[in-house]
Design a protein that fits this description.
Elements (H helix, E strand, L loop, with lengths): L2 H16 L6 H26 L25 H27 L7 H26 L4 H24 L7 E3 L3 H27 L15 H28 L3 H26 L4 H23 L2 E3 L3 H4 L1
Antiparallel strand pairs: 1-2
């Protein structure tokens, strides 16, 4: 055997040895990194929009007609937009590392495998939607779709974090019908609130670029309906906590309680931004909190089904 072949075999063994054969602290750390990068891309995407840098790179996939990177003559907006595009590479690297980390035990933990594959593939989908956003001159509905897809990815990343702390196996409904219905109502109202928030932002001043079109909807009317949906979400989530604690469904209560904390912060930020003429920093915080709220409500719904322990475990 040649030295080159021996080196390759040694490298392959070391790489295989790096790949865990079960959930370890390394797998859990990567799950948290997947979640953190998904939230971070929302924050930086908001920064692009709220600083008017949406067309800092005026074409796609290149930043200019001649180059993939920006140049100093294009100004600060090009750095902000190009920085957000570059962050997708970090997100993809983290997602690929997560896939590799669960590869050896993917058959035993198919849930973890698919929850790592989705963010790895979603980078390309997000890049395409982002490209369409630029090529359509920041169409507010495409921008909204871009954000909504990010919300879904944050929810799935949160589920990945949850699942690396639980065992494999089938799950069954473990709460009463009234509690399940209340959790669903909280989730539905939360989804409506997020969509109305997207439409409200699409009708307001933060277009992402001075020349970008708005959706033409009545901002004040949307703000009112959005607030009603938000308070409805708060009401049903509070009822969820009450019912969950009475049934000792503490995992559901935990995530519903977390959602209430986020909602209170959301309401405070929402009132402040309305009274202060929508300062960009508050709008950006509102966007990130919306993702965290969606994740919390989603996990509360997920926890209505608990894992059925194998017979050997119960024994």
């Amino acid at each position: 055997m040649s030295s080159a072949t021996t080196t390759e075999a040694t490298t392959a063994r070391r790489f295989s040895g790096w790949m865990p054969d079960g959930v370890t602290s390394r797998v859990r750390a990567l799950a948290w990194w997947v979640f953190a990068t998904q939230v971070l891309i929302v924050a930086t995407g908001g920064a692009v929009r709220l600083t008017g840098s949406g067309l800092g790179c005026d074409t796609w996939p290149k930043c200019t007609d001649e180059s993939f990177v920006n140049n100093p003559a294009m100004g600060i907006h090009s750095y902000i937009e190009f920085g957000n595009r570059t962050l997708f590479f970090l997100l993809e690297i983290v997602a690929i590392l997560a896939v590799i980390a669960v590869w050896r035990f993917r058959k035993q933990r198919r849930d973890l495998f698919w929850l790592t594959v989705v963010p790895a593939l979603s980078v390309f989908i997000q890049a395409i939607i982002g490209g369409i956003t630029v090529l359509t001159g920041l169409n507010p509905y495409v921008v909204g779709l871009h954000f909504l897809s990010s919300v879904v990815l944050v929810m799935l990343a949160a589920l990945l974090v949850l699942r690396v702390y639980s065992g494999p196996g089938p799950r069954r409904l473990s709460v009463s019908a009234p509690l399940l219905q209340t959790v669903w109502l909280a989730g539905i109202f939360g989804f409506v609130a997020v969509v109305l928030g997207i439409l409200t932002t699409g009708s307001g001043p933060h277009a992402g670029d001075g020349g970008a079109a708005r959706n033409g909807l009545d901002s004040e009317a949307l703000q009112t309906v959005h607030a009603v949906a938000a308070y409805g979400t708060l009401l049903f989530t509070a009822v969820t906590v009450f019912l969950a604690r009475s049934e000792r469904a503490y995992r559901v209560a935990r995530w519903a309680g977390w959602s209430i904390v986020v909602m209170i912060a959301q309401i405070i930020v929402g009132v402040l931004q309305a009274r202060m003429a929508l300062p960009p920093i508050l709008v950006g915080i509102h966007m990130v909190l919306a993702c965290l709220l969606a994740a919390g409500l989603f996990l509360a719904l997920v926890e209505t089904r608990q894992r059925v322990a194998p017979v050997t475990e119960r024994a």
